[in-house]
Amino acid sequence: MMQAIRRRGQRTALVIALLCLPGLNLFADPLHDAYWEATVGHWHGQSTYLDGALDYRIRDYHSLVSIRIDGDRYFEREIKFYPADVARQIGGALVRDGEGLEVVAEQEGVLTAGSASVLITRQTAPTAIEGTATSIIAVAADTAVIRVVVPGQDADPYRTLITMPTPGKRHRITLGLVDSQANSAAAGAAPGDLRGFSIFRETRVSAAELEQLRADYRQRYKIGAVMAPDGDGANAISRLD
Q1: How much is the pTM?
Q2: Range of 34's domain?
Q3: Is residue 6 part of a domain?
Q4: Which helix (H) or strand (E) holds 30?
Q5: Which of 34, 82, 150, 203 has the most CB atoms around its CB within 10 Å?
């Protein structure tokens, strides 16, 4: 009897030790794992941005997204190329007339238990929104939802749907919503009303193709300045010339 109890105790201790091994998650959901595996890589996007009245704000611009996962850490970098008619509004005086603007944003996060979602722990402007909590939630093997939550508000200021109908295609729709503070909202708008939305039509590319596309878009948009995070994560604008 005592020997049997000791053997059961040894097996229990072994199971506990295995569960505590770094990087081992016996409760990971294959559905969630499939999503994170599918989203890793480089994506080339064509985008458009409309306001709450469904009028074009930016009819055509482009983006390049790189995603990698290291253990339970999530890393994403997005580069957007804005045309001259809006570049000055974003970049200020360092953007000259007729020039476009390149904007680089980064975010990092941690996969939660079971890998159902990524909790974003670091964002750089303009992606970062002060006082919000952002999470990427895998809802299917090819689909996820991003929630940007403001504690105490009646509506999220942003929600994004990401879906990958095939391994080489990814589409994103980001909704800008009116929160309780009615930020950037039209007169009479209520929490949850649409402020605007962006659509991204994306294709998987290689690392070499991504770098070539970046060089091509710098020429196409006549990029004269780049907005990118500095060592402290704050935005810094620098000239390319």
Answers
A1: 0.82
A2: 27-79+104-221
A3: no
A4: helix 30-39
A5: 82
